[in-house]
Amino acid sequence: MSREIVFVTGSPSASSRSSFVAALVAERAKRAGFAVRVFALRDFDPSDLLLGQPTGATTKAFVEAVTGSAAIVLSTPVYKATYSGALKSIVDLIPPDALVGKPALGIATTRLDAHGLEADRAYRALFAFFRARPVDGLVVLDDELQWSDGQGTLTPAAHERLETVARELVEVSGEKTRAPALA
Question: With respect to CATH, is domain 4-177 assigned 3.40.50.80?
Fold first, then answer.
């Protein structure tokens, strides 16, 4: 079984809050012995995303990575009270059975708590479609993240939530990758 966790960041910005939070979770996964593969919106050929055609090299590598992964993490800024359309266009490339039983974590950064709750609900519905195993979502409010020049610091409360979610992701991903005991 794979010991790789795929991270997908759906922000158009090269240095975004949601990508920063995802990187913090990815660092915890690496420390726990997982390989991490990150795909960002800007890595994809726009025509592949717009047309939903997995024909480009990055798109093919993405589908292979997701299909073979131990888990997936989606991270997005909240737009219109849910995950970004750009993230959705990337997710649309994932085959319907690629995430069955795999741990799946949704991360959102937002200004409003209510929008974070909506993004979490949207992630849960998405993960249910894929028959993935959802990990408690992580929502970080803008006022919980001190941000300057692409660098950030979380408040203690947000940091604690991140540590809890990262620990759960690593634990359930580790369960998924353990070899079954021989009888």
Answer: no
